[in-house]
Amino acid sequence: MVADRPRPGVTLRLADEDYKYGAGPILCRVEMVIEPCDYGDDLTWWRVFGKCAKGTPEHHGGWQGRELYIRGPAFTQEI
């Protein structure tokens, strides 16, 4: 069963385990939700495009656009 489609326009604080191929905690402003993905772990992952940065909303090294896979439960971590 696919979880409710997350909405674009949210900013998320993501830990390593919240996104595929994570390399440290990041912030992600989701601009487009592309599709749900199944990695066989009983969670719905979402392929999204967003602007990402390391740091805090007030202090970060700049936003960079990228496509990434975010696990469904991470969408509750809106800031």
What does this structure look like?
- With 79 residues, the protein is mostly beta strands.
- Helix content is 0%, strand content 44%.
- The chain starts with 10 loop residues before the first strand and ends in an 8-residue tail after the last strand.
- It contains no helices and 4 strands.
- It has strands at 11-14, 26-38, 44-53, 64-71.
- The radius of gyration is 12 Å and the shape is globular.
Low confidence ranges? none
Q: State the helix count.
A: 0
- The SS-based structural class is mainly beta
Using only C-alpha atoms, the radius of gyration works out to 12 Å
Order of SSEs: EEEE
The fraction of residues in strands falls at 35-45%
Overall mean pLDDT: 86
Helix content: under 10%
Globally, the shape reads globular
Q: Number of DSSP strands?
A: 4
For the biggest sheet, the summary is: 4 strands, antiparallel
**Strand order of the biggest β-sheet:** 1-2-3-4
Alpha carbon gap, first and last residue: 27 Å
Strands, helices and their partners?
Blueprint: E1 11-14, E2 26-38, E3 44-53, E4 64-71
Antiparallel strand pairs: 1-2, 2-3, 3-4
Describe this structure in a few short sentences.
The chain is an all-beta fold and 79 residues long.
